[in-house]
Amino acid sequence: MQEKDVNSLTIKLDMNFLEYPLWILDPKASNRILQIVKGEGRYILFQSKNTERLPNRTDALVLYYLLGQLNKTGFSNNKVSISRGKLSSEALGTRSKKNYERLKICLNRWEGVYVQFEKTFYDNKTKSLENRGFSITKNWKYNAITKKLHICFADDFVKVLKNSTFYSLFDFKEYRRLSLPVSSRLFEILLKNFVNRPRWDIGIKKLGAKLTLTRKYQSQILGAVKKALKEVYQKTHLKIDLDYSNAKNICVFKKSFKPNKELSELIDTLPEVYRIKPICTLLSKWLKKKGVDYVEGNIKYTKENYSSNFRKYLEGALVGNWGIKEVGRCKVGRQLKEKADKDMYDKSWGIYNRLSGTEKTDVDRKIEIIVEMGMFPPEYYNKQYHLYNYFSGGYDYLLEE
Question: Of the four listed, 22, 66, 99, 143, which is most buried by Cβ atoms within 10 Å?
Fold first, then answer.
């Protein structure tokens, strides 16, 4: 299904509702209660309606979309009125009778949900673990004439979201992009655990409980986590790596490296299909070891000579410096370019000052056009920088008719 375009919608959730699940993974389970024990405390997710079960990811999508609507108003009230078609389209992807029926199920489920924190709700003001309990919604109704849904949220739930100083913001469109329910739940957990922290360690069994995975064996949990993390890495802003200790059965999550300018430029020279994490890590390692010319030359050699397994061939080239001639060309080319750039930069004012008044006006007008395009941040608005680009031909493609 092609993703429906949703305008930016920001969700604000207290960290406690990310740490502990408001929904469970199993879409078919008839569970009406979930308990997570932590130290002396515990968390309980309970469905009070005998005819309903605990919410799943589809229900979470609807809830989060509605919370995004509340956040738009700064949680000034606890009611959301929205057309059934819009909610169906933007939360679930399409308008259909099936989805309209699914919305009823979603809203009925949330009306019956109650969450209970027993010495597990972290209060950021008192820095203590407290006992707290919340309903999510109070009631809802559908107006068949206006085709609008009216949802009333529980006062205490809205109040804690509004006043929370211990919260995370995330984009609904990014969240909905995740196709695996376990990816969505892992995304929530990582959001909470990577606030001002580069690393997070957790036992595999504990992580399985937080995810609400029903897998029995550690290998099954780990397999699901790896698959989910790959999707989170590819489809969201969270760039997290995972190391697993078989000896201790501990997952070690770490923030991925951020490529510097040189590495980014090298990655851009790769065929798009090979701009993947293992190859980027390989380039980073050799960039630190041998420098940009060495890596660029061996990338060029690999692109021209490999027949299969690009990564393995590139690794061999970097180890053996198979592209030594290309490395030399890159080095000479870079030196010549840097010298030419410096010469042109130094000469740009002189060239400009030798122009006639009319010619200067024409150059100024063209540079003004470039600046108004908004392609350069304010720190680049340096007259000599723009003159250098103009006289060296760097702006030709932008000024073409």
Answer: 66
